[in-house]
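your task:
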Amino acid sequence: MALKKTLAISFLMMMALCGVSMATVYQVGDSAGWTSMGQVDYQDWAANKNFHVGDILVFNYNNQFHNVKQVKRQGFESCNATSPIATYTNGSDTVTLEKLGHFYFICGYPGHCQAGQKIDVFVAPPTSNLSPVTSPQSSPSGSSSLYFSNLSWSLGVLLAFCLSGLAY
């Protein structure tokens, strides 16, 4: 009886751990960072990423020459930073994407947004319950991701099958 209880608790803990996903950390602009020097097409950079709730954006920049302002769509389109949702100024800012939808960021220094220092990040819903789990780690593209296959799900099913045999 104690063995069945221990196995059942172990199974529940494993299933809970398998369901936990960690955020993907993205350094905006990869190694170039957040700059107006024309080295990065931020719209192209964002278009090649799959952002999800809980992911983290890291803005690295020289705070003597740049900042990050989160704005509404209208402020993004017109490069107007006068009514930001949030302002970041320390030079190494992290922003957690906490909901679905568009997040708009611009540099508030004169002329920088117009020069292309702006980004529209779209946070999409997960495609399925069996989507890959991500975890922070460095990679050449600047996005951090570690993908697990359906192995954890398969192990959970296998363990459930084994436990069902112990119940008799």
Observations:
- The CA atoms of residues 42 and 77 lie 14 Å apart.
- Residues 10-20, 134-164 have pLDDT under 50 and may be disordered.
- The chain has four helices and seven strands.
- The chain has one domain: 22-149.
